[in-house]
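Input chain follows. Return structure tokens only.
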Amino acid sequence: MASKIFPVLKLATKLTVVGGAFYVVYDSGLLGSSEQGTEVLGRAKTAIPPAINEWMKYFGMEAQVPELPTIEFSPRQAWNSGVRTSISALSDGPTKVCNYTSQGFQYLKDLSK
């Protein structure tokens, strides 16, 4: 009987953890717009280091938390730049293929003369 309940309990635990993680991500605004993402990043920068120091003191550990790296670019402007670049390359693809094909044919014609 226990051997049948254990896999169900294991699956329920995994689904609970995944659902909780998704809820936290959605509730904090990480799945929203770039403005919301920038705001969440700012909140995380101010909240995480003090929380780590508090937990280190609680467990009696001594450690230095490294400084957060500075971001030299605006995450707001680079939010979907990869998507924009990919879509731009896909939309220019047929034109580029046509140009390269005509250049290749011209090169072959010049070689055959």
